[in-house]
Design goal:
41% of the residues lie in helices and 16% in strands. The chain is built from 14 helices and eight strands. The strands form two sheets. Strands 3, 4, 5, 6, 7 and 8 form a six-stranded mixed β-sheet that branches. It has a two-stranded antiparallel sheet with strand order 1-2. The relative contact order is 0.11. The chain binds iron/sulfur cluster. The site of iron/sulfur cluster has 14 residues, from α10 and α13. Iron/sulfur cluster binds next to α10 and α13.
């Protein structure tokens, strides 16, 4: 991988996009913009590796606004590695319920147990990268944000900014193009403040260099940007076309008796949502009598978009494997998001 020398960094050079560019100026403008415009997010008020790590894992597949309340609650409940390592699984899953992708919570706990074995939070990229649930991006984010180690992050935001900035016309899902952009990210990284710089590039992608309609007029590096100069900012980055989401309809039953709701638990060997509690579906309860429909909602999981219809129902004989749970205790067990959304229809 090509690293820019100090001499190169100070002067004008040929950037990876083939355009003359001032790397030092690029860094200065990005950082100055970031200091002025960055959002005040709870995980930006700390460099504690435990907190940085939790935030990065939560942000992997969930939007910033949705993560904030979970992040704060989770840290109250599990304030450090030890608390997380020894948390009962049901409590951990209950704290995670709603964020989805529950393997993330399980990996967090396995990683916390590993960190406890190591006797403290690792500071080396290779050890961070070896923790369960930590990939290239997350290891680089923790290494740079918590420890200022020289690792560039390459998430979707950074890929977008750099592919536009350099005018990269290759498919960003392909390995050679990704490697090219990784080399650019390493090259432009401000090695004195890697954590701040990485966050600045990601923030630029999140707030200005938007997927649709980038706000180039607000952009601190507009005058250096190849895509902007060529008017190609809406055509880049080039990506593989992904198949559209599959649509599936399903029915969920709310069966209430004496202030209790009928639910069932997914077995531990389930690939998805193991240990989570669900509402029954009609084909699980042959004898159920459907009552009125009390609501409907959409829920998307990976590449499937569910349209869920929620019905009240009644039942005489409860088959094995189902349990009555008092409504007042519902928030104490890990409920799947669809069950939570369906039960919210009771309040409408
Ligand atoms: S000028 Fe526009 S396209 Fe280029 S980096 Fe800035 S926001 Fe993105």
């Amino acid at each position: 991988m090509h690293h820019i020398s100090k001499k190169e960094a100070g002067g004008r050079r040929q950037a990876a996009g083939g355009r003359t560019s001032d790397v030092g100026g690029f860094r200065r403008r990005i950082l100055a913009w970031y200091r002025k415009h960055k959002r005040d997010l709870p995980w930006r008020r700390t460099r504690d590796p435990y907190r940085v790590w939790i935030s990065e894992i939560m942000l992997q597949q969930t939007r910033v606004a949705a993560v904030i309340p979970y992040y704060e609650r989770f840290l109250k409940r599990f304030p450090d590695v030890n608390a997380l390592a020894s948390a009962p699984e049901q409590e951990l899953l209950a704290a995670w319920a709603g964020l989805g992708y529950y393997s993330r919570a399980r990996n967090l706990q396995r990683a916390a147990q590993r960190i406890r074995q190591l006797g403290g939070f690792p500071r080396e990229y290779s050890v961070l990268r070896s923790l369960p649930g930590v990939g290239d991006y997350t290891a680089a984010a923790i290494a740079s944000i918590a420890f200022d180690l020289p690792h560039a992050v390459l998430d979707g935001n950074v890929l977008r900014v750099l592919s536009r900035f350099t005018g990269e016309r290759g498919n960003v899902d392909s390995v050679p193009v990704r490697n090219r952009l990784r080399a650019v990210a390493e090259q432009v990284l401000d090695r004195k403040r890697t954590g701040e710089f990485n966050q600045a590039l990601m923030e630029l992608g999140a707030l200005v260099c938007l997927p649709k309609q980038p706000q180039c007029r607000e952009c601190p590096v507009e005058r250096q940007c190849v895509a902007r100069e060529l008017g190609m900012q809406n055509e880049l980055p080039v990506k593989s076309i992904r198949p559209g989401a599959k649509r599936v309809e399903k029915e969920l039953l709310v069966i209430e008796r004496a202030g209790k709701i009928l639910i069932w638990q997914r077995p531990q060997e389930n690939r998805r949502l193991a240990g989570f509690w669900e509402l029954p579906e009609p084909d699980q309860l042959a004898g159920a009598k459907l009552g009125p429909r009390i609501g409907q909602f959409r829920h998307t999981i990976v590449n499937t978009s569910f349209l869920c219809h929620v019905f009240r129902a009644s039942l005489v004989l409860v088959p094995e494997g189902f349990h009555w749970l008092a409504k007042s205790r519902i928030h104490r067990v890990p409920l799947s998001t669809t069950a939570k959304k369906a039960l919210a229809c009771l309040e409408d």
